[in-house]
Amino acid sequence: MSFEITYAPKQLADIVISDSYVISKLDAYITQDTKRPLLLHGGYGVGKTSIANLLPDAIEGRPAVVNMIKATDFKTAADVSSQFKANPFTGLPCFSINDGQKRQYLISNELSITENAAKVLVDVLDDIQEHVQIIFTTNHLQTIYGALRSRCTILEIKPALAMDWLVRARFIMKNEGLVMDDQLLLKIIEDQLKSEHDHRKLLQLLEQVVWQCRNGIMF
What whole-number distance in Å separates Cα of residue 212 and Cα of residue 201? Predict the structure, then answer.
């Protein structure tokens, strides 16, 4: 199985995040019952989607039932109204929830929304914030309607530092039964991150490193 699958983050702590401010804000959602809609933005491959998908589990302390909405489902005002059609018995959106779950979760990755749809969504957010934790991700923050941005906690997910990736890389090497000098491993990581900050690409590179070590091809 490829390293992209084998070593994909399984819990929030597996994601390499170098920004202490981001870590503290995410921790507030877990430990302080913060419920404000969360909008994650940044470049490709830096971990936005992984954070969005794994944060609900961290909040609940167990696997959470999460409702995923495709970016394309927010194209029109009618789309938004349909997605958030209320349950006549509770007055809340008809989302799935586990028994005993702290809140409902809605995730929309790579949010793409028209201004008219965003205006409807703004009203929805005001109504459901206490009950539904909404998490958006986007690569293009400035294309998101201003009033929608103002209702969210906005976190920029920046590329992780090589030194922070070293801990994860060490774990991978150990799990593969290999030992590599830290300075050499750090240089491999640094060179890759200078070229591309995509976490998936780095996992692909580490898979190649393991293969070369096992086949006697040294760096």
Answer: 17
Whole-model pTM: value is 0.88
- Report which residue type is found at 168: R
52-89 confidence digits (pLDDT tens) = 999 999 999 999 988 888 777 677 888 887 777 655 44
Partners of 108 in beta bridges: 136
Of the candidates 92, 99, 82, the residue with the CA atom closest to the CA atom of residue 133:
92
74: exposed, middle or buried (C-beta count within 10 Å: 0-12, 13-18, 19+)?
buried
Q: What is the rounded CA–CA span in Å between residue 194 and residue 159?
A: 10
Question: Measured between alpha carbons, how far is 40 from 51 in angstroms, rounded to an integer?
Answer: 9
pLDDT mean over 174-188: 94
Q: Which residue has the tokens 């929830």?
A: 97
- Pairs from 68-71 (Cβ < 8 Å, separation ≥ 24): 68/107, 68/108, 68/109, 69/106, 69/107, 69/108, 70/108, 71/108, 71/109, 71/110, 71/111, 71/112, 71/113
